Amino acid sequence: MDINLLVKLTSRAWSLNILALMHSGTPGRQAALLAATSAGRTAFAASLDHLIRLDLIERNPGHGHPLRPEFRLTLPGIEAASMASAIVNAVPDDTKFKLVRKSWTVPILALTGTPHRFSAIKSDLVSITDRALSSSLQQLEALDWIRRDIETAARMPFPTYRAVRTGFAINQAVNLTA
Length: 178
Prior knowledge:
Mean pLDDT: 91
CATH architecture of the largest domain: Orthogonal Bundle
Organism: Ruegeria faecimaris
Largest sheet: 3 strands, antiparallel
Keywords: DNA-binding, Transcription, Transcription regulation
InterPro entries: HTH_HxlR, WH-like_DNA-bd_sf, WH_DNA-bd_sf
Protein name: Transcriptional regulator, HxlR family
Shape: elongated
Radius of gyration: 17 Å
GO molecular function, one term: DNA binding
């Protein structure tokens, strides 16, 4: 998956959950999806609208009531839903999954299958700030999803970051669909 699309997809907290639920066969009606995600109505509605704007889901024509529409995955949405399902399955613990719902977690893990310097990650994620990247890397390192190593072979030592354990499983889920 294109990194820019991944950044857009993960910018709403419940987008991955909604896609994963639709991939697993949960009916595409708001009530069923809302109950399965345990999200708040406002955040859920924002994520659903966001997925429609990204053309990953669409209203199912001829199904549902105008005030309670039914949704279905589009062709690009099917691929994204498969990836989202693999990510959700990689992190079964709800307390740790809160970190996955943060905007930059999945894009950072997608880039760090191989060791990357801070500046390389930042250049690939054009709109991320230094502070957001640093904070995200620290949170991922605290959960042992990213390992920080110091490269001493160069004249000036520098840190590199690489996805490990659950972080690597998320990296593989994203990159297998690429």
